Amino acid sequence: MLVATSSQLTAASALIELDGLASRLVICPPDFSLEHLPFVMDSAGIDAIVSDRPIQHFGHTRSILFCPCSKAVALGREDGDAYYRTEWVLLTSGTTGVPKLVAHSLASLAGAIGPVKDAGKKVVWSTFYDIRRYGGLQILLRCVLTGASLVLSSSRGPTAEFLTRAAKHGITYISGTPSQWRKALMSGAAQTIAPEYVRLSGEIADQPILNALHVIYPNAQIVHAFASTEAGVAFEVKDGRAGFPASAMENTDEVEMKVECGSLRIRSSRNASRYLGEGAPALRSADGFVDTGDMLEQRDGRYYFMGRRDGTINVGGLKVHPEEVEAVINQHPAVRTSLVRTKKNPVTGSLVIADVVLQRDPQPTQCNARSIQDDILLLCRKSLSSYKVPAAINFIPALTVAESGKVLRRNA
Q1: Mind listing the pLDDT tens digit for each residue in 174-215?
Q2: Residues 134 and 6 in one domain
Q3: Rounded distance, CA 228 to CA 363, Å?
Q4: I need a labelling partner for 23 at 20 to 30 A (CA). Which of 77, 151, 185, 210 fits?
Q5: Nearest to 105 by CA among 292, 273, 282, 275
Q6: Which pLDDT value is given to residue 106?
Q7: Read out DSSP for 340-364?
Q8: Of 272, 302, 332, which residue constitutes the final position of a domain?
Q9: What is the span of the domain harbouring residue 379?
């Protein structure tokens, strides 16, 4: 069954009701393109679409069974009903634009969710993630399985409005990507909430964003975790520092990790089982490890994430990880956040370009802009090889954050 709803609450109700009744649940994210509907239905063997939208919104590409539902879907099932070990399938963006269908079990999705430590304690979760993506689904399942409350967000609504609503409901735990947290800090409403626990995942958590969250939430535990849709939840870092201790490679319970050809490989019961679809690539290697594609560098007993293997910029045959350059630029006290991208060049093939959002003045005067540019470039030259130093710096008012919660990368 394909769960394709406009409402997160409706999606949550449908997933809870259908687990164990459907042999397979395919969860559509909010930005799912209907042009890929035939591909997804064929790859996953879909028999029915469960939605809160009229059928005409799905087009007329093929004959389908349409099952309308609302947020009033009843929970629970009668004894004796057919029961399946439901396969849960999440969609991720593919390199060709066609989504990948990643198959999990409820056990693999919930593998990192431990028992409640303080049974009598009131826990109210919230997340910037949509619950139809891996990061948000983790929080939904955590709440369902531990009895916590959950305040849902909306990527289409103002961040300040969401934070105000979260504060009204007294949230104590909250998660999001570093880009979503930077957006929250820029909204001016971040101080309306007073969480005990702040979690970052989905992107590299550099030191500036960790420091900023420590300042605004001095009494909260600031944690960043590594997880991906394919590899599952691997580990979390609680020491307030970017990267993770090298000891975590050998001392993470129930998770095996190694670095091969520079990228992090993970094997655990939390891994997805496979990709669906004819001609789909193998999700795991012959020895059972999932290649995350996240590149690591070890320095002084600690591993640091350098960026994605498929996101490097080629400058005259030399590879540049945009995230590495961004981490340096973000150290400048005048910088809120940055995005490093590539621009075609006839001599070197590509140039490194940086778009920068400033802390207080998104459109500085020409004189101030020149001074800050010079400072940023000096910082880059001290910390990076010459080919990694941006050829140009542009000041912009804000970066675009995609529906996934990650900064939207573009090239010129």
Answers
A1: 999 999 999 999 998 999 999 999 999 999 999 999 999 999
A2: yes
A3: 36
A4: 151
A5: 273
A6: 94
A7: EEEEEETTTEEEEEEEEEESS-SS-
A8: 302
A9: 312-395
